[in-house]
Amino acid sequence: MDGLKLEGVDPARINDAAPIFVEGLGLDSIDALELVVLVEEEFHVAIPDEEVGKQAFASIDALADYILAHRS
Questions:
Q1: Of the candidates 35, 2, 41, 1, the residue with the CA atom closest to the CA atom of residue 20
Q2: Packing angle of the helix pair 60-70, 29-43 (nearest 10 deg)
Q3: How far apart are CA 26 and CA 19, in angstroms?
Q4: 3-state DSSP of the chain
Q5: pLDDT at residue 69 is higher than 80
Q6: Average confidence (pLDDT) over 24-33
Q7: Residue 9 CA, distance from chain mean position
Q8: Average pLDDT over all residues of the chain
Q9: pTM for this structure?
Q10: How confident is the model at residue 21 (pLDDT cuts 50, 70, 90)?
Q11: Is the pLDDT of residue 5 over 80?
Q12: What are the C-alpha distances in Å from 4 to residues 9, 21, 39?
């Protein structure tokens, strides 16, 4: 996750219900690709297509729920 543009972001100030991309954490499409790879490798959870990715990465809360529901 070193490549994500989160330098200077205090984890305690991240709103788990806020969007991950653009207006939330401000991550972009390159960050999205890195997050997909990270989730798939670290949690053994597949993000099969863009539509699933949009739902799974809607917020930190949504991502946590997705990982918990789809862990192998």
A1: 35
A2: 30
A3: 9
A4: CCCCCCCCCCHHHCCCCCCCECCCCCECHHHHHHHHHHHHHHHCCCCCCHHHHHHHCCCHHHHHHHHHHHCC
A5: yes
A6: 83
A7: 15
A8: 87
A9: 0.82
A10: confident
A11: no
A12: 11, 11, 13
Task: Record the tokens describing residue 35, joined without a space.
Answer: 């997050």
As given in the structure block, the two tokens for residue 9 are: 């972001």
Residues 31-59 have pLDDT tens digits of 888 889 989 999 999 999 989 999 999 99
61, 16 Cβ separation under 8 angstroms = yes
Distance CA 45, CA 61 (A): 16
Structure token digits, residue 14: 């991240």
Please give the single-letter amino acid code of residue 21: F
- Specify the long-range contacts of residues 32-41, CB closer than 8 Å, at least 24 apart: 32/57, 34/1, 34/3, 34/4, 35/4, 38/1, 39/63, 39/67
